[in-house]
Amino acid sequence: QQAGDGEAASTSKSFHDLGSCCDHLSISFQKQSDDETKKSLMVVDEWLRIVQGAQEALRVRANAVATHAALSTDLEKKHKALTSGSQSGKHAVTE
């Protein structure tokens, strides 16, 4: 019976060691997963900043294009007014 008790104790210790090893492995995987998640979030944050910067640049560019279009339209109207006034015999508009 002593041999059986020794074998049972050895088996119990082996299961305990295996459980401990699994616990350490689980903790290691959790830490690695946390690290990878943090890295992924940093990448996503950086891309978000880049996209926001591009969005702001596009907004500024769109405003510049709209201003240019408005000025061009105003210039065309003034040019037409000047040319139609001089063709109808009216005095030319000067500054």
- Helix proportion range: over 70%
Order of helices and strands: H
User: Count of helical segments?
Assistant: 1
Quickly give the structural class. mainly alpha
| DSSP, total strands | 0
> Rg from C-alpha positions?
40 Å
Shape: rod-shaped
| Proportion of residues in β-strands | under 5%
Any low-confidence stretches, pLDDT <50, length ≥5?
Answer: none
* Terminal Cα span: 120 Å
Explained architecture:
This protein is mainly α. Helix content is 91%, strand content 0%. The protein has one helix at 2-87. The protein is rod-shaped and about 125 Å long.
List the helices and strands and how they pair.
Blueprint lengths: L1 H86 L8
Could you write a compact summary of the structure shown?
This protein has 95 residues and is mainly α. The protein is 91% helix and 0% strand.
Please supply descriptive tags for the structure shown above.
95 residues, mainly alpha
